[in-house]
Amino acid sequence: MVRKMITIDNESGLHLRPAGKLVTEANRCKSHVMMIHGEYKMNCKSLMSLLAFPVCPGDEVIIECEGEDEELALEKIVNFLQNGI
Fold first, then answer.
1. What is the pLDDT of residue 43?
2. Residue 10: what pLDDT?
3. Mean pLDDT of all residues in the chain?
4. CB-based contact 63:75 (threshold 8 Å)
5. How far is CA 16 from CA 13, 31, 47, 50, 69, in A?
6. CA-CA distance, 78 to 74, in Å (whole number)?
7. Report field, pTM of the whole predicted structure over 0.85
8. For the residues of the chain, what is the DSSP string, one character each?
9. Most buried residue, 10, 33, 47, 49, by most Cβ within 10 Å?
10. How many Å apart are CA 38 and CA 30, to the nearest integer?
């Protein structure tokens, strides 16, 4: 398992459109991809899971990947969250 803490820099947070794009990115990975925000742990491969708990601009989240491509998955998801949304 690998983890990395990042800050959500998107000016509108993780709303429907960027969450949908994140789900698409996460589903390209073989590993389990989770986002931890406070006491909540969200499955990044599930849009409903991501939208259940609001993530606002400036929030710190932990991205956690576990599986056969966990290192690559973590790199891809972190890069997407920092540059792609």
1. 98
2. 82
3. 94
4. no
5. 10, 23, 8, 9, 26
6. 6
7. yes
8. -EEEEEE---TT-S-HHHHHHHHHHHHTSSSEEEEEETTEEEETT-HHHHHHS---TT-EEEEEEESTTHHHHHHHHHHIIIII-
9. 33
10. 25
